[in-house]
Design brief:
Blueprint (H helix, E strand, L loop, with lengths): L2 H44 L1 H9 L3 H26 L3 H31 L7 H4 L3 H36 L9 H25 L3
Length: about 210
């Protein structure tokens, strides 16, 4: 085997290892949120009335708008990969930048929603919340935990995609070697899928 062939085989193995590593990471993320979904289901079956009242206190319009924002961001993420494959680097950069901006808009909406809840005294361990029935305490505890954890993932996704945008703009991620961007896209799509589950659990709980 020639030196060039050995190098090509080594690069191929590295790319395959990166893909496998990413799928394993995504699997651990699904286990994390899957456990929280099971916990939510167990408590909701025990306190259906309290969870119903808790869901009525959330703004489903914001939840739906944020869902549309993330679905659109998934579309721009996927389209950026297509643009890169077609060697349209500027278009790929534009679409990635749009994805990052949509993620930021999602976070702004979420922070506004949380600030309203804090203004009304509804936050973990607050006197207002602790005075409520146990099911509502659990509902809002899970709400802040799960949406907060999801928000942290959005922040991480924005950071990763910002780096990917820079690398694509500099020509360090190309159509011939898109693995880093593909993996970043998989992570972003997972974030969107998790939110699609969170929407009915909390905002449509009523």
């Amino acid at each position: 085997m020639t030196e060039g062939a050995e190098h090509a085989e080594h690069v191929h193995k590295d790319r395959e290892a990166a893909k496998i590593g990413m799928w394993l990471f995504l699997f651990t993320e699904m286990l994390l949120f899957g456990g929280l979904f099971i916990l939510y289901s167990a408590y909701r079956s025990r306190y259906p009335g309290d969870f119903h009242r808790g869901g009525q206190q959330l703004d489903y319009v914001i939840g739906v708008v944020n869902t549309l924002i993330l679905l659109t961001s998934s579309l721009t993420m996927a389209t950026s990969l297509t643009a890169l494959a077609q060697r349209q680097r500027r278009r790929a950069v534009f679409l990635l930048t749009t994805t990052v901006l949509l993620g930021a808009v999602f976070l702004v909406n979420k922070s506004f929603e949380w600030s309203v809840k804090f203004h009304h005294g509804i936050y973990p361990s607050s006197p207002e919340l602790l005075a409520r029935p146990p099911g509502e305490i659990l509902f809002f505890g899970l709400y802040f935990t799960m949406t907060g954890l999801h928000g942290l993932h959005v922040v991480a996704g924005i950071a990763v995609l910002s780096v990917m945008t820079f690398l694509v703009a500099r020509g360090r991620i190309t159509a011939e070697d898109p693995v880093k961007l593909v993996n970043a896209g998989l992570y972003w799509h997972l974030i969107d899928v998790i939110w699609i589950f969170l929407l009915p659990l909390f905002y449509l709980a009523a």
